[in-house]
Design brief:
about 140 residues, 7 helices, five-stranded parallel beta sheet, alpha/beta, Rossmann fold, globular
Length: about 140
């Protein structure tokens, strides 16, 4: 499974005290790959540093960059599907470039993707991802 994770979901799953932290561990330790672009990584780092101390964020990001499940993509085309928040388009562009299975987000701006037949971009909320992970747990663990 190849996923693109919106920053709002990353912020919910990365803190070790979060009730959703198990999702972060599952994503990085199992047969799930995360597609990222430089733009996405910059936003992750920027938002984490706003919320947490710089040193732990630098260490966490270094571990994230080096994880075997992280796949880097540089989208060559800007689709501009999300007019309500153009900054969200970087996640769509990466998902299309990577041919990702899903974008994981709790942001309603991505709902416009339901009405776009091509290229097809599937979107799940964090809760829907948890359901998928539970239903496929035997296939995900190596």
């Amino acid at each position: 499974m190849l996923l693109v994770i919106d920053t709002n979901v990353l912020l919910a799953i990365i803190p070790s005290k979060s009730t959703y932290h198990f999702v972060f561990k599952v994503l990085l330790e199992n047969n799930i790959s995360l597609a990222v672009s430089n733009e996405i990584m910059f936003e992750y780092e920027e938002q984490l540093k706003i919320r947490y101390r710089v040193a732990p964020v630098d260490e966490e990001m270094r571990n994230f960059y080096e994880n075997k499940n992280i796949q880097y993509y540089q989208p060559e085309f800007r689709w501009n599907f999300i007019a309500a928040d153009p900054d969200d388009n970087k996640f769509v562009d990466c998902a299309i470039a990577a041919n990702a299975d899903y974008i994981i987000t709790n942001d309603n701006h991505f709902s416009v993707l339901k009405n776009i037949p091509f290229p097809r971009v599937n979107v799940l909320t964090l809760q829907q991802l948890i359901t998928v992970l539970i239903n496929n747990q035997n296939q995900l663990i190596p």
